[in-house]
Each structure stands twice: as structure tokens, then as C-alpha cells.
Amino acid sequence: MSKNNDPPGNPWGRNEQPPPDLGRLLTQKLDHLKKHLPVGNLTNFIIIFVLILSGFSVWTALYTVPSDSVAVVQRFGKYVHDVPPGLHLKYPLGIDVATIVPVKRQLKQEFGFSTPGATDPFQPSKTYDHGRETQMVTGDLNAALVEWVVQYRISNPVKFLFEVREPSETLRYVSESVMREVVGDRTVDEVITVGRQDIEAEALTKMQELSTKYAMGISIDQVQLKNINPPKPVQESFNEVNQAQQEKEKLINEARRDYNKVIPLALGEKDQRIREADGYRLKRINEAEGDAARFNALYAEYIKAPEVTKRRIYIETMQEVLPKVRSKIIIDEQTSNILPLLNLDGKTGGTQ
Fold it and tell me: Whole-structure pTM over 0.70, yes or no?
């Protein structure tokens, strides 16, 4: 015999009431409704209820799929098929559930900031804490605040909905993990200055590999770095370093400009002098060869007739020399005195 005063019908021996009788409750509600309705209006009430139920069924059976999306239809929770854009029908009253997935729209997730008025349905709310995900450690054990954007598309809506729980949140975790890995392999100078494109390319490749591995149904289009800053306590020092580097680059560019201005001019003058020397050398060689050829030809004629050639050379030489002499004196071999003559050049002046 039980020591507790348990009510009848409770097999567990606890002080709990048994579940209510649904049939009896339904009968009581109908009797209560009949008492409050006028006689003969129950049929009208049933007709009105059927019309309302029919209208609600039609309203829940019709749905529209936007042009940039597809609808994934589930029947009692089980996947049935995909539906293209347009107006469609489904089983009403929650039998079929159509989930709209924007497969043709390029979606994006922002890390470290949030754009006002963003329409991405999978973007975190404005109250999301972006400060934690931007704090990263570089390969040389420095800190940096990295902001970036991931642009992606839903390539497989079935995998996006059913293979991974919360795929958009999973994508954020994957993106943050990959970005920390890529930034951690580089120095802070590379992250802030020259290594941005390499970081974007490597992060894109690794994010796509993980998305494929996890069957997320997502295709990564682009990874774009935005603002990369050092932590606020050392930001002024980093700005001074950047200004010094920019000044250094400026001086190097100015030196290269002067170099490109002076050196090519000197090289051009050098080439000109070399060409002038080569031309003078060829001129002297050709003149020497011409003189040698002329002398050889004259010598050949001299051998044939020495006296004639000698006299001819004498006459040609005098013909070339005498016009250049202003005062001329003609003497005979046997003359003992000089005979003054008129100026043969025809110029006015005294005679000699």
C-alpha cells in the first residue's frame, strides 16, 4: 500500500494531475458555443469559418520568387525541389515551406566595420562587436587592426541551407581564421604597405578551399582589404615611420630623376665623341691611302719619263704657289743685280 496520498490514474506516484481529456474538452467548448449562438446560425458560422479557412489556405499556397533568387521547397521538413523565379503554388497551412535564397545576388560580409543601410540579409546587426575580429598579431609579433570585406555568392542553395548550421556565421569564422593565419605569416610592414595584394589572393584561395571542404554551398568572389592600422597607442609612431618612408621614396625618386637626366646626356656626348673620332680616323686613313695611291701613280709616270715628270711637277707647284705671293722677284741665274719690276699682282703700291 502506498504511503503517499496519490490521486487515482497517476502511475508515477507523484502529486501531478493526469492529462486532460481532449474529447471532453472539445464537447464542452461546442456546447458553450451553441449556448451563445442564436438558434439556426450554427450553419452560417460553419460556412464563414470554411470560407476564412479557404482564403487563408489560398493565401498561404501562393508565393513569389524574386528574379535573383530561387525557392527551396520543404514538405513536412523534407527537401522536395528547387523552384525558379516567378509566381508558384505550394501545399497550404504549413505543409510546404518555401525558403527564398538569393543565388544570383553578390553578397558581402564586412569585418571590422559595418556599412549603414546594408541590405545583405546575412550581415550581422549593427550591435555586433567588430573590435575583436580586427585585432591580429603579425609574424614579427606586432599588432595590427585589419578591416576587410568578403564578397561571395550562394552557388548551391541546398547545401547552404541543410549541410551546415548557420552558414553565414560559419563563413565569418572561416574568414576570420584564414585572415589571422595569412596575416600571421607576414611582418607588420608587409601587412600595412606592400603585401596587401598577396594577402588578398592567398586569403581568397584558402577561404574557397575551406568553403568547398565544409560543403557550405558558397563561392568566394573577392577578398578586399580595407583599412589596416596599428593599435592606437602606437599609431602616431607608425605614422611618423610611414612619413619617413615616403620621404625616403621621394628622395630616391628625385635622385633617379637627376640620374636619368645627367647620365643619358653624358652617354650621348660620349657616343658623339667616339663617332667623331672614328670619322676623323677614317678620314685620315682615306687621305693617307689617297696620297699614297697618288704618289705611287706619280712615281710610275716618273720612272717612264723622269725629266718630263720633274718639269711638270715643278710647273704645277709654281702655279699653285705663285698666286699666293704678293711680291714677286724674277732673277736669272747669271744676273748679279736685282731688276725692279712692276707689281705683277696688279695692286697699287711701290715696286720692289
Answer: no
